[in-house]
Amino acid sequence: MATAQTDRGVPLSTLCPKFLHTNSTSHTGPFSAIAELIDNAYDPDVSAKQFWIDKTVVKQEQCLSFMDNGNGLDHEAMHKMLSFGYSDKTAVNGQAPIGIYGNGFKSGSMRLGKDVIVFSKSNSTSCVGMLSQTYLKKIDAKQIIVPIVCFEPTKTGKYILYLMD
Fold first, then answer.
1. Could you give one GO CC term from the UniProt record (predicted)?
2. pTM score, two decimals?
3. Where residue 154 sits, what CATH number does that domain have?
4. Residue 45: CB partners within 8 Å, gap ≥ 6?
5. pLDDT tens digit string along 121-130?
6. Residue 29 lies in a domain
7. pLDDT (tens digit, 9 = 90+) per residue, 131-143?
C-alpha cells in the first residue's frame, strides 16, 4: 500500500474501509442513527426549515432518502462532511451546533446501510458525494476513498464538471 505523506515526509494516518462498519456500531439501533441525520439538518449553519424522510426501492433494494432545505454544501464542505473528525461548526446567533465532532453523519448513515450518496446544492455549486462500503470492497480499497463530483454553472448556462476524490 502506498503511504500518503505530508510535505515533510511524515506518513499520514489513514482509515481502513472496515472502520465504516465498526464506527456504525456506536448506534445500538436505527433510531439513534436517524436522529444523527436529522440533527445535522438543524445545526444553525445549515438553516434548514424543513426535513423529509422517504422510503423507496431502487433496483429491488430498499432505500431511505433524507432531504432538507438547508444551505447546501460546496466541495470543501462536502469533503469535510464525508471525512472523519472534521467540524468547524460554531454557534450562530447564540444557537450552539449539535454536530461538533465530525462523526455523526458517517456513523449514522453506515448504521442504516452500506452505502450513502449525498446530493447537495449550494449557492454556487452542486455536488454529489459517495461513502460506500460496497464500492470500497469492489475495488479492494486499502483506505477509505470518498469520490465527489461537483458542477458549477457558467454564464452561458452550461456547467463545468469537477471530479475529485
1. PML body
2. 0.84
3. 3.30.565.10
4. 71, 89, 90, 92, 97
5. 998 889 999 9
6. yes
7. 999 999 999 999 9
